Task: inverse folding
């Protein structure tokens, strides 16, 4: 058992890797509550225009994430314990070769929200910032920290997508459009990285890398949620409310 209790680990103290994952998860849940994401997003999704704006802008938040896996993968060298999680993560994105790809599921959601073609979508400023920040991190952070960043981000699937599933369901999105959220609400992708993350956890430097990555991920999520909510609230300012009409 290892206890991280000195300053560099502040806020992420844990006795093992799953305790650390709980800390990351707890911080995201606190953030969701602090920003009132459930209420604000739920309110916004009552507007058809806002539903389209949400589908169109969240598209950019999640659609490019495979690229970040490739960027970190290109830095990972011959030690397969480091690239195994990335490969498995990408296979999951492809639906494990047995189900529709996650991008295909997202396109179903776009259609349900009234967006027929994803090729013409324009990336909003907050999403461009989010992607730029992630891309920089994947290219420039020390390699193990960049890898840990991807792994830690996967921890957030559970709180984020459970919440999103709840609000899109309430907004009246049909079963085909819900699939993307259902798949992610039940995903356990952090486990795909367990081998390499356990290796990191054994050493103080590795634990520091994990905590550095967690700070980056939690902080970048704050930026993303704040940007997304402001974007939607601006989009629908002054519009009459039309409850649950897709
Ligand atoms: Fe996915």
Result:
């Amino acid at each position: 058992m290892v206890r991280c209790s000195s300053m560099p680990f502040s806020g992420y103290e844990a006795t093992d890797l799953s305790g650390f994952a709980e800390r990351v998860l707890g911080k995201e849940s606190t953030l969701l509550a602090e920003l009132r994401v459930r209420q604000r997003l739920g309110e916004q999704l009552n507007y058809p225009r806002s539903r389209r704006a949400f589908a169109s802008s969240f598209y950019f938040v999640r659609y490019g994430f495979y690229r970040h896996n490739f960027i970190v993968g290109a830095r990972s060298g011959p030690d397969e314990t480091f690239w195994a999680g990335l490969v498995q993560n990408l296979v999951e994105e492809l639906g494990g070769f047995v189900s529709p790809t996650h991008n295909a599921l997202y396109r179903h959601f776009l259609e349900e929200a009234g967006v027929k073609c994803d090729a013409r979508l324009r990336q909003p400023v907050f999403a461009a910032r989010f992607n730029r920040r992630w891309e920089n991190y994947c290219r420039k952070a020390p390699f193990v920290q960049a890898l840990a960043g991807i792994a830690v981000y996967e921890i957030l699937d559970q709180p984020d997508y459970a919440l999103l599933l709840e609000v899109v369901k309430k907004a009246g999105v049909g079963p085909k459009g819900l699939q993307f959220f259902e798949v992610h609400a039940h995903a356990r992708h952090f486990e795909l990285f367990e081998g390499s993350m356990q290796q990191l956890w054994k050493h103080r430097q590795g634990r520091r890398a994990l905590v550095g990555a967690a700070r980056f991920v939690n902080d970048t999520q704050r930026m993303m949620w704040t940007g997304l909510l402001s974007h939607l609230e601006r989009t629908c300012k002054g519009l009459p409310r039309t409850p649950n009409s897709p």
